[in-house]
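Figure S7 source data.
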Amino acid sequence: MSEDENLSFSTRAIHSDDNNAKNVFSDISPPLHVSSTYKYPVSYNYDIGVRKGVFSDPDELRKHIIGLNINSEVDTADPHVYSRYSTDTRDRLETVLGSLEGGHATTYSSGLAAIAAAFAFYQPTRLILPHAGYFGTHGVASIFRRSRPHVQILVLEDFLETYTDFGAGDLVWLEMPQNPNGEIYDISAFRERCKNGAVLVVDATFSPPPLMYTLELGAHCVMHSSTKFLGGHSDLLGGVLAVKDLETAQKLRQDRSFLGSVMGNMEAWLLLRSLRSLEVRVTRQSESATTIAAWLASPPQTPEDVKPLSIVAKVYHATLQQPELLARLNSRGSGVLSVEFISTEHAFLVCNRLRLFQNATSLGGVESLIDWRRAFDDKVSGGVCRISIGLENVEDLKADLRRAFLEVKDALKSESEKKINVQSI
Ligand SMILES: *Cc1c(COP(=O)(O)O)cnc(C)c1O
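Tokens for the predicted pyridoxal-5'-phosphate complex:
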């Protein structure tokens, strides 16, 4: 779609499926289709009043069905047969997602289903995974290894200081920014180290385009949990793998036809709807997160910040820890930050004292969330809360944090005073 390349990101989010062969309806808002199966195409002979199958020849029908697995393109006029192979909404969705990533996208029923599909497709013999990072990725890796005991699972952090190259059979998995503390990596440098067919896959769930163009930076494959920022409304579960070349995307779609991990009709429709506002949402979310991270990390500027900020031990956001690398990656950061409090008790209590931040896991939605990460991952320090910034006004969010921090500080101070009083009696 050469015309499409001249359009900017926000326009493509709304118009890159305009010319999709399946977009044949006059609806302005994409329609929702729920059918799992489709009639074989027929032609109608008005002269004799007979419906006639287009595939009158059995070999022709057979060729068409087999062709579904060979030619898994999303932008063809080929009729649908069964929704595990293709659907209108999913085809349009993958056209838009591919355009936004600068490649070709394949969608899945969840982020973890996308990770499982990537492992199944690349068939690594050495999986290099971050020790930190999303705990679920390790879960998928251990299931992958269950039937392949020869597969080695190595720790990414061990390769950060030693500049050895990766080789045939290696799959290097980066998470950008990484759970829970938002570290970022030099993708291009890792790509250069991938020799002889070693593959670099990046989980960019925390920094979707246009915050970061992961394929452009050199990743062979970018993965997203579309449950998070891409979906953006906390109402769908989904995953994406995007690659530069159509041939690899077609192979991934062929695999998916048999893995069966397709995104449901309703979810594909919700996600297509959500992508239309992606740029405005994630740009605002990362700007607000940057503002809040800077405020929490800086020495208190005003007397009313002195007490509340004293319960914050450290703030994690790439704009604070790795601003130069962020600039080099042309990345605009992320709407997620982490805060380490001075104790587990402070962290845990803050989650329950906020009014605008809901205490719930997940991230990327229009509603701000706060989550005590130790509940999911015992490798994470007890003082750490992950905060996902939504679309509420940033000053309202700061005021809510300030009030809750102060309440927690006072509550725990009077607790410890009580203890001292009890001891002294
Ligand atoms: C949520 C998440 C996943 C898993 O995605 P699901 O859609 O929940 O299966 C993977 N990676 C990261 C970074 C995530 O935040």
